[in-house]
Amino acid sequence: MHQQKRQPELVEGNLPVFVFPTELIFYADDQSTHKQVLTLYNPYEFALKFKVLCTTPNKYVVVDAAGAVKPQCCVDIVIRHRDVRSCHYGVIDKFRLQVSEQSQRKALGRKEVVATLLPSAKEQQKEEEEKRIKEHLTESLFFEQSFQPESKAVSSGPSLLTVFLGVVCIAALMLPTLGDMESLVPLYLHLSVNQKLVAAYILGLITMAILRT
Questions:
Q1: Which of 67, 69, 77, 163 is 20 to 30 Å apart from 146, CA to CA?
Q2: pLDDT tens digits, residue range 193-208?
């Protein structure tokens, strides 16, 4: 006998709530920011009813603080700041959106949105710019400290002149010695024993200098 599949019961408080944005920033010197919009999304196949709560309701006006959202739809919730004073600068307030099924009273999910009043958008941008500069300087200092040993090692390596002298000495030692008649190398490239001893001595000095760096 075929049994009808039952829909799993939704647990109170576990339903994800989708709201954008999750942070509201009001600027005292910019009246256009005194009105903010929260968008509540309902991606589910059943309708939701919502309610907006606030920790400081005397500072805000919430248009349509309660209502319903159809399945796979969204609604805009308008929030106005009505108490723009310097004593409220930097104070963090919180809004809580609670959602539930239309036929039930228990809250299936909730989401908190923070709200902050700042004195000036320009000052905020200046602070963010200063913060970015400090972070950049910190990263640059860390980069220099991290790669300083390697740069020293590279800078203290053998110079091109030292390498060139070493190659010349090796080539001199490979040339034939005076009196070697079977060599195909021209006679003017034949070196004496004393010349080769000098080349070997210089090559030894260069090798010791390279090993010490």
A1: 163
A2: 778 788 788 888 877 7
